[in-house]
Give the backbone structure.
Amino acid sequence: MKITSAKVIVCSPGRNFVTLKIETDEGIYGLGDATLNGRELSVASYLQDHLIPSLIGRDPFQTEDIWHYFYRGAYWRRGPVTMTAIAAIDMALWDIKGKALKVPVYNLLGGKSREGAVVYAHANGVDIEQTIDEVARYKDLGYLAIRAQSGIPGLKSTYGVPKDNKPYEPAERGLPSESLWSTEKYLRHVPKLFDALRTRLGEELHLLHDVHHRLTPIQAARLGKELEPHHLFWMEDPVAAELQDGFRLIRQHTTTPIAVGEVFNSIYDAEQLIREQLIDYIRMTVVHAGGITAMKKAADFAALYHVQTGSHGATDLSPVAMAAALHLDVAINNFGIQEHMAHNAETEETFPHAYSFSEGMMYPGDTPGLGVEIDEKLAERFPYQRAYLPVNRKEDGTLFHW
Ligand code: CS2
Ligand code: MG
């Protein structure tokens, strides 16, 4: 079998997505997600201007060789744009392989270790009361794990809480909006949020929280300690994670489990965190960390150190990425949890898929390949519109982490 062509489809059914479609001489094609929220066209160009020309003519079954060809062959290694482009090719090749062999991709990754993947939802509210109501609503929808984010008294806006009642998932069209942040106000508020959640909803429900990179290690240690009585499933992205050493300080002070990695694009971003067991869940995802080939290796490395997966799955990852993630999720032994934010109706219509949600779990389906399609005609009706993630500043104007 030979690759005969490949094309990049950029569309915006409510938000921007970049999809790679690789065609072969046997009429079988594969899809890969190449979406990098806020920098979509960089990946589209990296694929069409740099990678696709040397993809033509290759054997799509050679996932390992092709991965290294584009990783080492670029000379300039790693980075979100590069690794998202490689990820899209890798996902599409696994899709082709599964279709050609007439098996769902999970059967090429070791087969099912479980029927379904437990997922967590995003609940948010402008204040504690509204957040409790939202968590209760998702609990009633059958979710076993729910992330809770609430507005912070004294701050006009904050990560994870929409201004209106829509699901929260920037990127905003037009230039980046700017928000103001106060760590002090945040640290005073979050323990009260989880105290109220546990008091009202009990101990059983898995509760998660995303700090979104905004504390220093000692502040994260304080928050982790204060949240210990509430037994969170995890505290996510407590600090900006370039300094892997910084997590040693957090670990010394708290047993609250830590999840990191949605912004990582290579196992080297997490190697020390995993080897020193400074984290409990690795959040790297198939679309930004080099695809299924790379994620399987990262998961196997993490398994050596008691670290489980907890892959990113916000709505800026397309249904193609969700499909690929679920095949990996049901196959690997050290699966922890999968993030799940339901896509909007236009996205669901543009990307028909075999995966499904039921009673807190997601199932990849048994279609050969990844089990996801793109309706190209419909995609054309949703043209790309440049959009950005917000920018965050401290109240004194200092540029901070968003
Ligand atoms: C968040 C995301 O899902 C998460 O855990 O961190 O909402 C993240 O902010 C977006 O995916 C960024 O594009
Ligand atoms: Mg996050």
Q: What stands out?
A: The chain is about 35% helix and 20% strand. The pocket of magnesium ion (ligand 2) is lined by residues 210, 212, 236-237, 262 (CB under 6 Å). The domain at 3-104 is CATH 3.30.390.10 (Enolase-like; domain 1).
